[in-house]
Design the sequence.
């Protein structure tokens, strides 16, 4: 079984849409997260609650386990909290732009962590690891940091940027794109 993570909306996008909607109704949005249960260094369960004003609109729970490598080796609790918010948003009707894609991007990435034999399909135009390494290397030579949109750049864009840096006739223009949560 394979799937493309680009077909699943990140929790941050869903949260932004919900907050905008609630402000339009003149209510105040609130997100309350609670560490519901945990075993230190092993696993945790978070509960998220979404309120519009004083009205509880939805809840969501998520569980994550500490792992030896990957995002959960350092951030299993943060990842769990984000996933709980994503579940609450889905329960509140913010299941993504495609209702058949109820899980968030973060939840689908979790599937891969636990089902290591599944294959995530990459964007066809995604740059190779070698291109990204070369781009970062060239940026470092000129004392620049990678732009914030590096993860969304195409093979063509990275190649063009590398050529520009090597020829000295281009510098990266970082775009203000919000960072996605875990």
Sequence:
């Amino acid at each position: 079984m394979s799937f493309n993570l680009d077909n699943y909306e990140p929790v941050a996008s869903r949260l932004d849409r919900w907050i905008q909607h609630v402000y339009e109704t003149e209510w105040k949005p609130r997100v309350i997260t609670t560490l519901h249960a945990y075993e230190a260094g092993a696993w945790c369960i978070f509960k998220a609650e979404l309120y519009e004003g004083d009205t509880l609109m939805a809840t969501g729970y998520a569980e994550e386990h500490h792992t030896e490598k990957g995002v959960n080796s350092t951030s299993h609790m943060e990842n769990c909290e984000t996933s709980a918010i994503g579940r609450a948003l889905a329960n509140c009707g913010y299941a993504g732009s495609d209702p058949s894609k109820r899980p968030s991007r973060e939840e689908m990435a979790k599937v891969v962590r636990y089902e290591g034999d599944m294959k995530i399909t990459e964007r066809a135009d995604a740059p190779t690891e070698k291109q990204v390494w070369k781009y970062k290397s060239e940026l470092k030579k000129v004392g620049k940091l990678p732009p914030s949109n590096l993860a969304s750049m195409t093979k063509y864009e990275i190649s063009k940027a590398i050529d520009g840096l090597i020829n000295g006739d281009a510098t990266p223009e970082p775009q203000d794109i919000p960072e996605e949560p875990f």
